[in-house]
Specification:
The protein has 70 residues and is an all-alpha fold. The protein is 90% helix and 0% strand. The protein is built from three helices and no strands. The chain has helices at 2-23, 27-58, 61-69. The longest helix is centred in the middle third of the chain and has 32 residues, at 27-58. The two termini are 31 Å apart.
């Protein structure tokens, strides 16, 4: 899962770099925007992964037992 989030964040940074080259931004604004896009996607992807993995912990054991017997 880490590799998927990392690749998605790198793709976001690449899209930012392409937009910077297309719109002729300067070096420092481009680097800042690339870092923000990378960290934003990485942190949000990590939070979403943790949320998905924590869902079974919030279900009660009775609900799990009833769904398995049906």
């Amino acid at each position: 899962m880490y590799q998927l989030i990392h690749n998605l964040a790198l793709a976001a940074a690449l899209v930012t770099l392409i937009a910077a080259l297309w719109q002729d931004w300067g070096l420092l604004p481009t680097l800042k925007k690339m870092i923000i896009s990378y960290l934003g996607f990485f942190i949000l992807g990590s939070i979403m992964t943790l949320a998905v993995r924590l869902v079974p912990h919030f279900e009660s054991k009775d609900e799990i037992g009833e769904s398995e017997t049906e």
